[in-house]
Amino acid sequence: MAEQAxxxxxxxxxxxxxxxxxxxxxxxxxxxxxxxxxxxxxxxLFEGETYGLVGESGCGKSTTGRTLLRLTEPTxxxxxxxxQDIFQASKKELRSLRKDLQMVFQxxxxxxxxxxxxxxxxxxxxxIHSLGSKEERRERVFDILNKVGLGVEHYYRYPHEFSGGxxxxxxxxxxxxxxxxxxxxxxxVSALDVSIQSQVINLLKKLQDDLKLTYLxxxxxxxxxxxxxxxxxxxxxxxxxxxxxxxSLFASPLHPYTxxxxxxxxxxxxxxxxxxIVLKGEIPSPLNPPSGCMFHTRCxxxxxxxxxxxxxxxxxxxxxFVACHLY
Length: 327
Hints:
This protein has a single domain (about 10-100, about 180-320), classed as P-loop containing nucleotide triphosphate hydrolases (Rossmann fold), CATH 3.40.50. The chain is globular and about 65 Å long. By secondary structure, it is an alpha/beta fold. The two termini are about 30 Å apart. The model has no long low-confidence stretch (mean pLDDT about 85). Helices cover about 30% and strands about 25% of the residues. Keywords: ATP-binding, Nucleotide-binding, Transport. Pfam families: ABC_tran, oligo_HPY. InterPro entries: AAA+_ATPase, ABC_transp_ATP-bind, ABC_transporter-like_ATP-bd, ABC_transporter-like_CS, Oligopep_ABC_C, P-loop_NTPase. Belongs to the ABC transporter superfamily.
């Protein structure tokens, strides 16, 4: 586990991303409401660590990753990187920040240009930022391909000539070619076979040690996030409901939603000697979220106060935070 520094490398404060919902005539029909995809999310990422962001599909994990890098413009909040607010950065400043902050997308094939050879795709960021000569850029790409477990021969191939696991490595190579400080992974192994998943996860950990990288790892897979993360944030309907060091969270999950997620993992029930918790109903619509605690419509322990008041995040143990009226 990475040693935690005093100052965070990336500090996300009260992040919000709302998407307007318009009428049938678009803007002419007026805005009918807002989808609150990310609503007041805060966490810190320390140098050299992996922070796992986990939750059901549709809870806002991917939107969080895209928004804090301004790939999607935020509605509110701040993201501080080395004392600079990314949301207030000019286009020129943001372009410079892109060297340090990279993202690996969920679908590697759709993020690769099918008309370009892999070598051209990987060299493109270096060309954009005017880094190195033509020969130096090529050598840099060869080196990165080698680091992610591919060979020089792959430099000349097209995306359709690679397997799913190889494409995932290519997505990783494109992020690493800029020598970043922070890499955000959006479901990097969800579409891969279990055997390939373990290869990619082990590769990510090795690269993190070798290149001194810091990761934000977004996934819905509890077993994967446990294997790679130092700390974990559990997300539900646009909010982080629990956050703790990985060992602490798995030893003693506090929020009812976290307990339900863990109980669905094969083997976790035997570990905690508990029956599986089955949540009733579907995730409420972010267009019209419940009042008070957003989880109260599915929570087996819901009280009257849960319907009226939003729970405040409290520190129950060392660095173990939970937002729940039960505590």
